Amino acid sequence: MKLLEKIKNFSKEKKITLSLVAFLIVLTVIGGIVFANNSNIRNTKATSNEPILGENKVEEIPDVSLENTLFEVSEIEETENNVTIDVLSKLENYNLYYYIDTIDSIEDDEVMLKEEIPDNEYLLYENIISVEDNCNIYFKYELDNIYSNNSYNIEVTNILKNTIAEQPENEEATEEELKKEAVDKIDTSATYYIKVNYQANVVTIYKKDANNQYTIPVKAMVCSTGTATPKSGVYKIGLKTRWRTLFGGVYGQYGITIVGNILFHSVPYSKQDASTLLYNAYDQLGTSASAGCVRLTVEDVAWIYNNCAAGTQVEFYASSNPGPLGKPVAKKISSYENLRNWDPTDPAINNPWRNANIVEEKVPENNTTTNNETNNNNTIIENNTTNSDNNNSNSNSNNNSSNNVIDNNNTTGNESTNNMDDTNNIGNIDNNVNIEENILAD
Questions:
Q1: What's the N-to-C CA distance of the chain in angstroms?
Q2: Of these four, 80, 360, 388, 406, which has the most CB atoms within 10 Å of its CB?
Q3: What's the distance, CA 349 to chain centroid?
Q4: 31-85 residue pLDDT tens
Q5: Torsion sign, CA atoms 351, 357, 363, 367
Q6: Rounded to an integer, what distance in angstroms lies between the CA atom of residue 439 and that of residue 280?
Q7: Separation between Cα atoms, residue 193 and residue 185, nearest integer Å
Q8: CB 306 within 8 A of CB 289
């Protein structure tokens, strides 16, 4: 009270000065409070695990490791049986994807380098993985189409060599086999369902929709079927072998039994060697050129081999409509003299197609031959030296002869073209004619 009485007795100038001082004190207190609150906000943002509002922060997807993912491998000792890989636990908020890269043996270095595998080639893990051959299996986590930077690898090297050396007597399925092995109803337990359109020479892979029906097309593949290919019916994938001896004394990669002696397999080779491809047969992909098996590119048949387990159903039908994904086109390779003994889609590291420097020019239509289905309409200009051509000519001569004889068996209209190809190889053809006359297809 005494302080107030003294203030009342102050002069006007003192009262103004006192008011200004009080005002400044209030501003100082308010400013301190605001500063303290801002500091707390900044500290909270700096330490929070949540993304800051307004910032385009991309979440980094964790790599698969033994710390966050538990795997169970069925066999670790040498075995002739399949090896299964089961995922017992994983990170709940992420999808697990995998990629299978098959290898021929423990010493095999002709495998795709894992850094070369595009993320979109990985498959969603849904069921136990079963493999029939030695392979590398790469795993990644995914969220919103963003994948782990690094893959986790499980190497399977304990499966004994899986090869059938015995040559089949034919390339067909008997009426009894077709009737006995036909499936009455669709089984939706498998991940995929395969349809073979033998009229259009297209294979289409389907996966299940929300109603557990195989209605979603995943992949289309160009193929070659033949006279003994089933025209209808549903069958199940059976035995798989990495290499298979085929009718006619030739060989195929990734032999997959469908019914009887009808298989999925690669285009044939003259030897169990990926550098001995019968290239004229490869150029016939998309046409009916086999005796009965379903020929595919190495890339496509390996996909079925690695991703469609035994028991996966295969339906045969005929339609001029190739299917929902259309009909892919396989590259014509016969004119690539230094490359044509390899399948262009084979992922082997020593496949010469991987590093080929090729320029293609369109040939006018009036220069094409009547054999349009089996000859490329492109002229190939290869950046290879004459010495390279000469070095490769001897190693390719036997295989060239094999291919030319096959063409003579398939179409009489090709005789003039084949005679030109065989000018320098007549002696080799005579030596191989007994074997090649039997190669109608496989």
A1: 116
A2: 406
A3: 16
A4: 777 676 665 555 554 444 444 444 555 679 999 999 999 999 988 787 777 889 9
A5: negative
A6: 12
A7: 13
A8: no
